[in-house]
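Much of the work behind modern protein science is quiet bookkeeping, done one molecule at a time. The protein below has been through that process, and both of its lines are reproduced in full.
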Amino acid sequence: MGASTASSVQSVFSDVSITQVNDKVWKLVSDLNYQGDQGTYIVPTGFETDLASVPRHFVWLFQTYGRYTQAAILHDWLIKDEPTVNRSQADHIFRLAMLELKVPFVRRWMMWAAVRAGGHLSYTRPTQLLSWIFVFLPSFVFLAIPFFILTVWLGLFKVIEVIFYVILKPFSRQPSPNVLPEGRIITHGE
């Protein structure tokens, strides 16, 4: 039974291969293929993504990558580059793709509620709005206290960084260029 579960997940998405562009952006090294209940989509090589767009305050609960990475890349592509899919449909495909990837129920619905909020609930039908409220309100209550605490701690950390910068700045020295006997200067890039 376990083998058929693994093979059904493998048949939904191809393997993902990415390379880092900068601190927050990744680029696909090969096409990412999705063939699931919501259709067939090919995210092309070279597509750039931030993986799962998780606000800094919530990375303790939702990392930028995980079991849902392929669904997050597909979602980014659907929003940015797929003209036949509106934001509501892209969010729906994201949630169902996470189901196909066996992302746990609560995590899947909370991530869906977050991307719906990030899309300003565009193209939302009344029944979808009720589903969103049903998921968003308990999520908000659950996350409000950690959000407040992290906001205070991140602010405090920023103050500490500034204090240390101001105190240590007078003692820092810029590296001096190395000068060769013939007067040519060697920069750090050589």
In short: The longest strand covers residues 32-36. The radius of gyration is 23 Å. The chain has five helices and seven strands. The chain has a mean pLDDT of 86.
